């Protein structure tokens, strides 16, 4: 678990922000990750490994360095929080053939990282309906922790499903939320967390991932249109009222 002084430092320097979500105390980090202290649990979402090499197949001149950079960023935040459990919230691999294009050194780094954590869980997404057999860790369609469902795309019938009787809210990937706003006289834009009463949308962590505006009807219909909070991040994380 993260050293207490390290967490205090991130909170006081606005690199992390504590929220209460469905009666759970959760930390949103300026790295674009979520940390749940009660369960020593760190969440990444939408890594999209090998998106660069996928696009390069279609004559896109984008550099094929995204996987390495994403892995480096993951290592940094893992070293900071030192979690006993990691959940990757879907679309970790950009497509079904991503592993065949992935540099062997990056595969080794990824597996070493997975094996360094006591419990590493891959939630399946629409881009990666299965995790390559070459990659360590466990995979599932969704995960339940306490009263929260962690899933790539939101479960619409959750309140009616007998299996989900204890679930009160969801932590969701998939949408890559981003926003643009004015704060303290300056225009700010970037990826963000979106927090509603029953749904928390994670930002995309991958290096080449774009985003969907928080003003888009898809996001509004998913999270609801009232009691919303937005947390824009970069060097710091800001609660946008």
From TrEMBL:
InterPro entries: Calcineurin-like_PHP (IPR004843), Metallo-depent_PP-like (IPR029052), PdeM-like (IPR026336), Pesterase_MJ0037-like (IPR024173). GO terms for molecular function: hydrolase activity. Residues 41-131 form the Calcineurin-like phosphoesterase domain. This is Calcineurin-like phosphoesterase domain-containing protein.
């Amino acid at each position: 678990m993260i050293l207490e002084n390290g967490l205090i430092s991130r909170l006081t320097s606005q690199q992390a922000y504590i929220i209460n979500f469905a009666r759970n105390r959760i930390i949103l980090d300026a790295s674009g990750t979520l940390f749940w202290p009660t369960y020593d649990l760190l969440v990444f979402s939408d890594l999209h490994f090998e998106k660069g090499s996928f696009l390069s197949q279609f004559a896109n001149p984008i550099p094929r360095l995204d996987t390495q950079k994403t892995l480096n960023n993951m290592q940094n935040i893992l070293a900071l929080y030192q979690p006993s459990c990691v959940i990757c919230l879907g679309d970790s691999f950009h497509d079904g053939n991503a592993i065949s294009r992935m540099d062997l050194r990056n595969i080794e780094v990824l597996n070493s990282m997975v094996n360094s954590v006591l419990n590493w869980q891959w939630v399946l997404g629409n881009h990666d309906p299965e995790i390559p057999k070459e990659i360590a860790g466990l995979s599932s369609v969704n995960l339940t922790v306490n009263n929260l469902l962690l899933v790539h795309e939101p479960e619409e019938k959750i309140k009616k499903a007998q299996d989900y009787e204890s679930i009160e809210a969801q932590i969701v990937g998939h949408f890559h939320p981003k926003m643009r706003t004015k704060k303290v006289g300056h225009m700010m834009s970037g990826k963000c967390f979106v927090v509603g009463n029953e749904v928390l949308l994670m930002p995309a962590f991958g290096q080449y991932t774009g985003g969907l505006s928080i003003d888009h009807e898809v996001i509004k219909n998913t999270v609801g249109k009232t009691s919303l909070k937005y947390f824009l991040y970069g060097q710091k994380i800001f609660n946008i009222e």
